[in-house]
Design goal:
The protein is α+β, with helices and mostly antiparallel strands and about 625 residues long. Helix content is about 50%, strand content about 15%. Strands 1, 2, 3, 4, 5, 6, 7, 10, 11, 12 and 13 form an 11-stranded mixed β-sheet that branches. It has a two-stranded antiparallel ribbon with strand order 8-9. About 0% of the residues have low confidence.
């Protein structure tokens, strides 16, 4: 009786040993440890010394050991190390196989090193190593993460044309690339192709397709995709619900977004920080400040982290709803959780106070917070605001080798204003001024707090400090609080807008979305009932009717009007969109003046729009104007 028991015990012991995964040999573990400890910019010689130390001789491990080492390195914090190890192994004579390449390309995917991933994929072809679906998927993902969406889609097309197996993961990454590129119609075509090819459509794929629609404001398509999940027995989860809620909110369908949030609360689908932030943002769209505050309070009750985005959205909702006291209370909570909140949130509170005629509260709050920001800045020894008052006269801001100097319109504590010419981007102007300051030995940190379109000329405002500086936050608060006055001059064509001195206001909401234009993504800005609040005032300074000049300029029966325009809000291309919506497009507007564009550009080669004046407060609280 003891012999069967002995056999049974031996069998169970062997079964347990065979069931456990085999641990890698000690030399492999030590090599992986030492490679992970190397600096990310280490040379190949140091990498080789690790292999020689632990594998002896030439240091070249066998193929399986090399695969295990590369696979373990793929999960390390330093994405460069698997690539360095792969290069050394190849130089040492390793016959690299599909698994070695797969591990190295997976490291590229992690870091978004798309160029290296494509190079490795090309190396596989040169070495006659058959490309695997996994290696191609990782390369597509690396291109997508690196912002090379069209390259990702090109590789996907090559896989489809080469009769390679296209998995759910392959389609998911390609659909995500379409979404990033604004090519939502292509994303839906890929989703349809998955069904035709009988490739499994899972929750992640649906969430990715809904997100592709969300990014271009196609909320109706997103709703359709979401509704189709149930008949296909595809589970809905937090990610799909978040994508749909964000799509509805951005599309101006705030009621639908809140209805979805309500359904999630009654279901088993978990609500996370993103869910609540999207729902609170929807409340801001609908000016439902009480609902927004209720959602904010509910986050703590459900043990969901309340982040700065949720607080910012709640402050905006209270401001939109006209409750400045509640906006101030939520802002104070935000400040307790984040000692240096964004100036945009403060600006929302100030805007609410201003609309309620609580001017004293608004100005007191602004002065109090700029003092707090300055104290925090000094404590953390971050870039200090430039407090020395410079000349306010027009002086050049020019760095050697950077082209024509920019005129310095204003130089005051905490800010600089320069004259940006047309066809120079705001970021390029910022860099030119930064280089000029650095060349003269001054503190060169600058932040763009307001931008001018590339084709627009005029006063461009820069904060003296980085994005977290008190100067930047102070100016952002003024813009968000609508305390900054900007005046533009433009020339528009069309019917008469009245005699000189007359004026009006355009209150049409404006929506910004990405559009899929024949496979290429582009932005579309237009008046839309689902858009954001936008207001532009205008006053006619002069008008030129063309009974006598029409033959010369090509406007028979029409007028040109020189306008002084003041945007109350700051939407993208607001002046251009508002004037075009009135049938008065700006002269030489390449975006919205297509019917007249060729005629305009015969005598005016640039967009006729110029920011002529900005009035605001400097870091000392004094009102100043850049002209």
């Amino acid at each position: 009786s003891s012999l069967p028991r002995l056999f049974a015990a031996t069998f169970l012991s062997l079964h347990a040993m065979l069931s456990r995964p085999l641990a890698p040999p000690l030399n492999e573990e030590n090599a992986i440890r030492d490679l992970r400890n190397l600096d990310s910019n280490v040379g190949l010689e140091e990498v080789g010394s690790v292999f020689r130390r632990h594998f002896g001789g030439s240091g070249l491990p066998d193929a399986r050991a090399a695969t295990r080492v590369l696979s373990k390195l793929r999960d390390s914090r330093q994405s460069e190390m698997p690539l360095a190890a792969m290069r050394w192994l190849q130089e040492a004579g390793l016959e690299a196989n599909v698994f070695h390449f797969g591990a190295a390309i997976a490291a590229c995917e992690k870091s978004g090193a798309w160029a290296v991933a494509l190079g490795l994929l090309g190396d596989m072809a040169r070495r006659q190593v058959v490309r695997s679906t996994i290696a191609c998927n990782s390369t597509i993902s690396a291109c997508e993460k690196g912002g090379q969406w069209l390259r990702a889609l090109q590789l996907f097309s090559e896989m489809a044309g080469g009769q390679m197996e296209l998995s759910t993961s392959t389609y998911s990454v390609a659909i995500r690339a379409c979404g990033k590129a604004g090519m939502w119609t292509n994303a839906l075509r890929l989703l349809s192709a998955m069904e035709d090819d009988q490739v499994e459509v899972d929750t992640i794929v649906c969430a990715t397709a809904i997100s592709a629609c969300e990014k271009v404001g196609e909320w109706e398509q997103a709703l359709g995709l979401f509704a189709a999940m149930a008949p296909r027995r595809i589970d809905k989860n937090t990610i799909t619900c978040n994508a749909l809620m964000s799509s509805c909110e951005k599309g101006g369908q705030w009621a639908a977004a809140l209805a979805l949030a309500s359904k999630m609360m009654r279901s088993a689908i978990a609500m996370d920080t993103i869910t609540y932030s999207a729902a609170i943002s929807a409340c801001a769209r609908g000016a439902r400040w009480a609902h927004a505050v209720g959602l904010l309070r509910g986050m703590a009750g459900r043990l969901v982290e309340v982040d700065a985005i949720a607080y910012h959205a709640a402050v905006a909702a209270c401001a939109q709803g006209g409750s400045w006291r509640q906006a101030l209370a939520v802002y104070d909570e935000l400040r307790e959780s984040n000692p240096s909140p964004s100036g945009i949130s403060l600006g929302n509170v100030i805007h609410a106070c201003k609309d309620a005629s609580a001017w004293a509260v608004a100005l007191l709050l602004l002065d109090r917070e700029v003092g707090r920001w300055s104290q925090a800045e000094r404590r953390t020894s971050s870039a200090a605001v430039a407090r020395s008052e410079g000349p306010s006269s027009r002086t050049p801001a020019h760095a050697p080798g950077k082209g024509e100097a920019l005129e310095m319109l204003l130089r005051r504590p905490g800010l600089i204003a320069v004259l940006k010419p047309p066809r120079l981007s705001s970021a390029e102007a910022q860099e030119q001024v930064r280089s000029s300051l650095a060349a003269s030995g001054e503190e060169a940190a600058l932040t763009l707090v307001s931008r001018l379109d590339v084709l627009t000329s005029g006063a461009l405002l820069l904060a003296r400090g980085d994005a977290r500086s008190s100067a930047a936050n102070y100016l952002l608060a003024q813009f968000a609080g609508r305390l900054v006055s900007k005046t533009y001059h433009c020339l528009c064509s069309g019917g008469s807008l009245g005699a000189a001195g007359s004026g009006g206001i355009n209150r049409a909401p404006i929506a910004l979305s990405n559009v899929d234009a024949g496979g290429a993504a582009s932005e579309r800005v237009a008046v839309s009932e689902f858009g954001l609040d936008a207001r532009t005032t205008f006053r006619v300074q002069a008008f030129y009717c063309h009974d006598h000049a029409g033959a010369t300029l090509g406007y028979p029966g029409e007028c040109l009007a020189l306008l002084e325009v003041r945007p109350v809000t700051g939407r993208t291309n607001q002046i251009r969109v508002h004037m075009a919506s009135m049938g008065r497009p700006l002269v030489s507007d390449t975006l919205l003046g297509r019917p007249r564009l060729s005629n305009d550009q015969r005598w005016c080669p640039r967009l006729f729009l110029h920011c002529s004046r900005i009035t605001l407060r400097d870091a000392n609280g004094k009102t100043c104007t850049a002209v």
